[in-house]
Design a protein that fits this description.
Blueprint lengths: L12 H14 L14 H4 L1 H31 L5 E4 L3 E4 H27 L17 H18 L5 H21 L8 H5 L9 E3 L16 E6 L9 H8 L1 E5 L8 H6 L4 E5 L11 E3 L4 E3 L6 E3 L5 E4 L8 E2 L1 E3 L5 E3 L16
Antiparallel strand pairs: 1-2, 3-4, 4-5, 5-6, 6-11, 7-8, 8-9, 9-10, 12-13
Helix pairs in contact: 3-4
Bound molecules: FE2/S2 (inorganic) cluster.
FE2/S2 (inorganic) cluster binds next to loops.
Membrane topology: Multi-pass membrane protein
Protein name: Cytochrome bc1 complex Rieske iron-sulfur subunit
Family: Belongs to the Rieske iron-sulfur protein family.
Amino acid sequence: MSSQQIPETNLPVEQDAAHGAVEAAADPFADPGLPAHRPRIQDIDERAARRSERAVAFMFTLSMLATIGFIASYVIFPVDKIVYIWPLGHVSALNFSLGMTLGLALFLIGTGAVHWARTLMSDVEVADDRHAIEAEPEVKAKVMADFAAGAKESAIGRRKLIRNTMFGALALVPLSGVVLLRDLGPLPEKKLRSTLWAKGKQLVNMNTMEPLRPEDIVVGSLTFAMPEGLEEDAHDFQTQIAKAALMIIRIEPDNIKDKREREWAHEGIVAFSKICTHVGCPISLYEQQTHHVLCPCHQSTFDLSDGARVIFGPAGHALPQLRIGVNSEGNLEALGDFEEPVGPAFWERG
Ligand code: FES
């Protein structure tokens, strides 16, 4: 084979390889350098290069057509048009065509670019030596001289009182951070585990501030309640309501799937904690057909007809249920406190 010139480097292949081989033979630990560049067919045959060029242009052209198809699909297909496509079955014509055309347009740009890079762009490997990280001796000397001059000007060596108190202050500052570590535990379990709910506490409507009666709760409605005696202007109102807030809904008793939920309800009226078990947002979006409630923060969804178990989202466990009944005045009342801690799911971490 004759010595071949590589267009990008002008290095003769055999000469470069032979040079490395001679060096390696002389010193087995010598840097072998980069392997000799092997020209591709497109580097030496202009017709092959043109073929690759046409292939890349073909993919980019198809991508343009796919984008035009995307715009056309958007204009042509109505939102509710359903078509049968094997093996997918019945799908929305609009969604299917938008997805296919956009996917194709992006895919073809990608494959065109990859083919271009692999066949036509230069593939010669190059190496660039790293620079030393260390500063030059003159720079180091200047920094040290500046530092010494600054220390002298501040008179830190002479004014020992300032120097010593400054070191003391700097040494103590990190202690603030260490003290804050106390908040990592142990947890104030009792405070977090108990709420204002207790046997005999009436459920008060948070909008009207009136005690709730079973007839106030109709199927399909969502009512928020808090314990009687909790005043909105109390100094710890936010702390208490953050643990005690309730969601009250009514479900046909036969539609309650969970046995304990049915037993803890009163004529289909169920009371669950309103505090999401993910990171504690108040839950408020109720879908009466499915009995699902959705937390607006990260979309955790709970099935209130099945023990408020999590059916979607990051929440770690079901919403705690409050056992309720009716007192002698016909008002809804709690039959005790929650049996599980309300709020975020860290309780389940061993
Ligand atoms: S706080 Fe409810 S899903 Fe995150």
